[in-house]
Amino acid sequence: MNTTKNYIFTSERLGFRNWMEDDIPQMANINSNTNVMKFFPSVQTAEQTRGFIYRMQQQFEEQNYCYFAVDVLESDAFIGFIGLSDKDFESDFTPCVDIGWRLSENHWKKGYATEGALACLKYGFEELHLEKIIATTPSVNIKSEEVMKRIGMTKVKSFNHPLLLDDERLRECLLYSITNR
Q: For the N-acetyltransferase domain, which residue ranges apply (predicted)?
């Protein structure tokens, strides 16, 4: 196992880094959990997870940001991702930079999503000099919307997500945003 972890930045309890091969099985396990993926059209396979991680590695090389692999500093435990990613699906607010998170179920309700998202906003605004960061979630995902509010984002509107039009439960999404102050 590769235990060399070069953190791009840290928060009080979390380390944010680019992805490693060793992360693939752990992230695949998270992506196959039906509770974690409740607000997505389906769980993801190991191969889909591998593709996602490769895309994130490539995006980091090009942009200096991605949905970062996240570890708990105290225990060195990998818990999922929190970070920034480019979005370019067809809408009136894309292309844009999105903030998102997906954590293993046994690391929920510890404040990690909020703490990590605040650290990512700080990185995006102070280090990358981004002007605006958005977040989207299906309107039924109250917990993600609560995180968006806690990190200071403002609701912009509801919209039908073009990639979820065939999914009656997930189609209606919320758009939140925050600008660099």
A: 14-172
Tokens representing residue 120 in the block: 């990512």
Torsion of CA 25, 31, 33, 35, to 10 degrees: 150
Is the Cβ–Cβ distance between 155 and 175 less than 8 Å?
yes
Amino acid 4: pLDDT? 55
Instruction: Please give the Cα distance from 46 to 52 (Å, whole number).
Output: 10
Domains of the chain: 9-179 (3.40.630.30)
Residue 23 has pLDDT above 60, yes or no: yes
- The runs of H, that is alpha helices, within the chain are 23-31, 46-63, 112-122, 142-150
Q: Does 81 score more than 60 pLDDT? A: yes
Q: Considering the chain, what is the average pLDDT of its residues?
A: 93
Can you tell me the distance from the alpha carbon of 71 to that of 66, in angstroms, rounded to the nearest whole number? 15
Question: Residues 62-83, buried b or exposed e (16+ Cβ, 10 A)?
Answer: eeebbbbbbbeeeeeebbbbbb
Compute the average pLDDT of residues 12-38: 95
Distances (CA, A) of 113 to 3, 42, 70, 107, 174: 23, 21, 10, 9, 18
